[in-house]
Protein 1
Amino acid sequence: KELSGKGARALTDWNLLEEFKVNMSDDDSVVRWKTYGWPKNIQQLIVDTKEKMVQDEEKFRENLQNDVTSFADTIVTLQKQVGSFYNHTDIEQIEATSVEARKIQHALNTAQKNAETYNARQALFGLPLTEYDDLKKCVRDFTPFKDMWLTASDWVTSHKIWMTDPLLNLDSADIDNQIQTSWKTIHKSLKSFKDIPGCYKVAEEVKKWISDFMPYAPLIQALRNPGMRDRHWEQVSEQLGFEVKVDQSLNFEKCLKMKLQDHIDAIVKVGEYAGKEFQIEEALDPMESQWRGSTW
C-alpha cells in the first residue's frame, strides 16, 4: 500500500507538471511511464510466481514419491543383509564381522533418519504417511547380532589393552563397568540365539572369555587402588615373599606370571587398608588448607 501510494503521488505530480507545460527530460519520461506500467507488471509477476510455485510443488511431490519408491528398495536390501547375518559364525573372524555389523548398523541408523524425513515431507504435502514397519522389524532383528559381535570385538580389544598396557594406566572402575556390561549383553545374546546354533556357540565362547577374566577384577581393583603408596607395596612384597615393583614396565600380564592371583586375598586386604587411609587423607586435606590460612 505504501509503495502504491507513492506511485500514485508521483503520477499526480507528473500530470500536474504536464498541465503547466513543464518540459521533462527523456529520463524523467521513461521513469514516468515505467511507474505507470508497474501495477500491471506486478500483477503479472504475481500470476507467474503462483504458477511457478504450483510447478515447484508438483516437482517436489514427484521427487518425494520417487525417493519413497527408491527407499523401499533400500529397505529390501537391508532386510536381505540382516536376514543372512546369522551365517556369520566364525569367531576367528571377529574383526571382519564386527566391521560388517557396524556398516549395517550405520545403514539402519541412516534409514531410520530418512524414514522420519520422508514422513515429515509427506505430512507437509498432506499425503498419507508411509508405515515403515519392515524397517522397524529389521532394526529389532539385527540388534542381537550387532550387540554380540560388537561386544566380542570390544572385549578382544580391551583385553589386549588390560594385559599389555602399563598397570599404572588402567582404570579399574572402567574395567569393572565393561565386564558387567559385556556379561549382561552376552547373556541376552544367549537367550536370543537359542534357536540359532552357530551364533549361540559364538556367544558361549565370548561368555567363557568374560567368565575366565572376571576373577581377576578384584585383583586389578586392589592393584589400582588410588590409596596404594610405596609403604603398601612394601607390605605386599613382604607378605608375598618377593618384591613387587610398580612402574611403567609392569603390566597385568606380568602380574599373572608372578602369580599375584594366588595371593589375591592378601593383596586385596592391603588395598582395602590403603583405600581407607586414602579416604582419611582426602577428608583431612581441605581441613589442613583451612588451618594454614588461619591465625592463631
Note: The chain has ten helices and no strands.
Protein 2
Amino acid sequence: MARKGKEQDQTNKEADQISLPPNQSSSHNKKFWLLKSEPDEYSIDDLASQPDKIGFWDGIRNFQARNFILRMSAGEQIFFYHSSCKTPAIVGIASVASPARPDPTALDPAHKYFDAGSDAKKPRWFGVDIKFEKKLENSITLELLKTFRDSELSDLLLLRNPRLSVQEVSKRDWDFILSLQCQQPCADALSPMKGATACTSTSKKRIRQPEASSSVGLSDAAKEGDPPTLASKNLGSAIRESSERSESASRQRMSKRTANNKRAAR
C-alpha cells in the first residue's frame, strides 16, 4: 500500500532516536488523529475498497509524523484528509486498527520510500493499520477550517504545520470540526446567488445546484418528500416575498395606467 504525504525528511538527526512527543491528553484517554493523503495516490475510496476495509499506512519518512504513529492505539479515531488537490478537505473518518509496526517499504530497494539507512534489526520507520469507518456527507474544507484559525481552531496543528501528514487532534478540536459539517453548505443556501443547498441532519442527501444558476427553488430532497430543511424554508419564503412584491408593483402600474386613461378620455 502506498501512503500518503510529502514531508520526507531523512536528514533529521533524530533518525535513530525514537522519542515520543509530549502527550496532549492523559494516557488513559483515547486520542484523535488526522492523516493526510493525496487522493490520486491513496484516497478514502481506496481505503474503503480494501479487504475488511483495512489498509496499512506506510511511507512515513518524517520523524515527528513517525512519533505520532508510535503513539496511536487501536480504536482511536482518525480524520481522513485529502491534500494536494483542488479542494483540500476532511472527507471521512477512519480508526486505528492495530499498534504501530515496522514499515517494510523502508527496506525495499525497489520501493520509492526505500531508506538506505534503515536496519531491520533496529527499525527507523513505522506504519499502522487503519480501518475505514465512513465518508462525510459534507466534506470539511481547509478553506472553512482556516476561518477559525484565530479562534476555535487556534491550536489545530493542520493550520500551524500543514505539511505534516500525521497529526494529533485534541478532543475539543475534534468535536468542533465535526460540528462544521453543515455550516458552509447551509450558509450558502441562504444566499440565492450561491444556489440552493439542502443540509440537514435528518436528510441523507446534500443537493446543490450549480453555482452559476440564476434560478432558485426547493431542493430535490424536499421535492422527494423529505422533511423541509431550513434552507428550503428560507428559500421558499424569499420566493414568496419576491412574488408578492412583483404582484403588488404590477397592480400599482395597472392602476396608474387606468387613471391616466380616464383623464385622457375626459
Note: The chain has a mean pLDDT of 74.
